[in-house]
Write a structure and sequence with these properties.
Blueprint (H helix, E strand, L loop, with lengths): L3 E3 L10 E2 L14 E6 L14 H7 L7 E3 L5 E3 L2 E6 L5 E6 L13 H11 L16 E8 L2 E6 L6 H5 L9 H7 L13 E7 L3 E6 L13 E6 L3 H10 L4 E2 L7 H5 L4 E6 L5 E5 L9 H10 L2 H9 L3 E3 L22 H10 L7 E6 L3 H15 L4 E6 L2 H10 L4 E3 L13 H4 L13 H12 L3 H18 L2 E7 L1 E6 L2 E2 L15 E2 L2
Parallel strand pairs: 1-14, 3-12, 3-13, 17-18, 17-19
Antiparallel strand pairs: 1-2, 4-5, 6-7, 7-9, 8-9, 10-11, 11-12, 13-21, 14-21, 15-19, 15-20, 16-20, 22-23
Helix pairs in contact: 7-9, 13-14
Length: 508
């Protein structure tokens, strides 16, 4: 019997639909290797250096985090079994679990956590991608073997959510000291699975960590991740049973998977944003007016309806309707060809201009970008599509060696983490190379606010700036979808798009 579930999220997607489920064994079974299909080969696996979605979904199974989120995105204990926050919101005292071991047999204690904070805050020598979201960390003090206090320079509403993600992934200090910059080749954490090896563009292999701190977990013997850039190849391998779960479901495959007797499709409101990254320092898109014309040309609703259907919603900014910032997808701007032509005239290029758009060589990316190109050609904007491997695009974006790019990056579990790292002038992954004192002020104030109503008002102010400066052309939010074989049991679908397998098991 087919099962299809529409799960609730933090906001707009609260409906739940469940059809009859098959009867399985009551108790989880041990053993088996879970085969996972990824949309991209992860370019970097050091959790303190990486920014890609493909990397983080692997790393959540290698590295335990200080805290965790549940399926409602509420903060839950993990390595820290409890914590206290001072009245002024500036001091967090964490009490760690006793007896936690890293995969190399060393102890995860307060000293190890302090080491990790030092490493993540080192933007200059180490080049940490986490430094931006930990910019408010003023002091880290070890109070005892299992107690550590982190003092912030000001309150930070996104601090605990950050520690449930990249910035909470605790690496082995011993392994870092031994391997240095090559730590990404060994990946020693304290999560449910330990790293075995990686073959570029082929697979990442993990095995069960028998000394994992949660008794009885994990159930699986191991996990193998395999990249399938071609969306059809991902789907076919899922349908034939060669893989058990895929991390990205193409919009055009939704109906096909819903009708399958052997596959379960789970959909929750997505947090990530999609559209066009623009390099505001490039010759082609350095002009705000050119970027405004580009944005005005794109009909977000046509893109969603023609490619994704119910699998996506139009975007107004980086905050999806699944958050408490945006109330409805209907807020997204409508196509305005007259406004596009006026912006081009103001930019001094009334007949249009051309720019190269870097895209990954998968069917969905090509189809979406082709729609952009067709829409923009009407006013003389010539988008030259260039198919490039994901990791190369990411490197070129970081270097500023691009004009426009279309890639999927990792959605985050708090509005601060969906905006500050990407669009603040000091953001660790500011691939737009955008610097606005006004945007910096708004994002900094939103970070420091604790009251959700105050934070919402500031992020609404940020939306106005996003749609004035256009450091990114926001087009749509994909619903968060996972498709897996019916024999894969126990999967918890959390809206941050990650795949956690500590309590997953395979039915014979």
């Amino acid at each position: 019997m087919k099962r299809f579930t529409l799960l609730s999220t933090v906001a707009s997607f609260a409906a739940t639909l469940a059809l009859a489920a098959p009867v399985w064994a009551d108790s989880p079974q041990r053993g088996g290797i879970l085969q996972v299909g990824l949309a991209d080969d992860p370019p970097e696996l050091d959790p303190h250096l990486s920014s890609s979605n493909a990397s983080r979904t692997i790393l959540h199974n290698i590295f335990a985090t200080l805290v965790e989120v549940d399926d409602k995105l509420q903060i839950q204990p993990e390595l820290a079994e409890r914590w206290e926050v001072s009245e002024d919101g500036r001091q967090y005292t964490f009490y760690l679990r006793d007896g936690v071991k890293f995969h190399d047999g060393t102890t995860l204690d307060a000293e190890a956590v302090a080491f990790n904070f030092d490493r993540m805050r080192d933007a200059d020598e180490f080049g940490s991608a986490r430094a931006g979201e930990l910019a408010f960390v003023e002091n880290v003090k070890v109070d005892g073997p299992l107690q550590i206090t982190v003092t912030l320079s000001q309150p930070y509403g996104g601090f605990l959510p950050a520690l449930a993600s990249w910035s909470g992934m605790i690496v082995s200090p011993t392994a870092v000291e031994e391997h240095g910059r090559d730590f990404g080749q060994v990946l020693v954490g304290a999560g449910p699975f330990r790293f075995v090896n990686r073959i570029r563009d082929d697979r990442v292999v993990l095995e069960r960590f028998d000394e994992y701190f949660k008794d009885g977990l994990p159930y699986l013997d191991g996990v193998v991740y395999r990249p399938f850039v071609d969306a059809e190849a991902r789907i076919v391998n899922l349908e034939t049973g060669s893989i058990h779960i895929i991390n990205t479901v193409p919009g055009r495959a939704v109906n096909r998977l819903q009708e399958s007797e052997d596959i379960n499709l789970s959909i929750v409101g997505g947090l990530g944003f999609r559209g066009i990254w623009v390099n505001v320092e490039s010759d082609e898109l350095g002009s705000r007016e050119r970027r405004a014309a580009l944005s005005a040309c794109i009909d977000r609703r046509v893109v969603v309806n023609s490619i994704f259907g119910e699998a996506a919603v139009p975007a107004v900014g980086p905050f999806s309707p699944a958050t408490w910032v945006v109330d409805s997808a209907e807020e997204a701007p409508h196509r305005d060809v007259d406004a596009a032509r006026a912006a081009l005239a103001e930019a001094g290029v009334p007949d249009g201009f051309s720019f190269p758009l870097l895209i990954t060589p998968d069917d969905e990316s090509i189809r979406v970008a082709s729609i952009y190109a067709a829409m923009c050609s009407e006013v003389g904007i010539d988008i030259q599509l260039q198919q490039v491997e994901f990791g190369t695009i990411l490197s070129r974006m970081a270097e500023g060696n691009y004009a426009g790019a279309q890639i999927e990056l990792s959605p985050r579990n708090d509005p601060d983490l969906s905006a500050h790292p990407w669009f603040h002038s000091s953001g660790g992954v500011n691939f737009s190379h955008y610097a606005s004192p006004e945007m910096d002020r708004v994002l900094d104030e939103a970070r420091a606010a604790v009251d959700q109503g105050e934070r919402r008002a500031l992020y609404r102010e940020a939306l106005e700036l996003f749609n004035t400066d256009f450091p990114y052309v926001f087009v749509y939010h994909l619903q968060e979808m996972k498709a897996h074989r019916a024999e894969m049991m126990g999967y918890r679908h959390i809206p941050d798009s990650m795949m956690r397998f500590e309590d997953v098991w395979l039915q014979d």
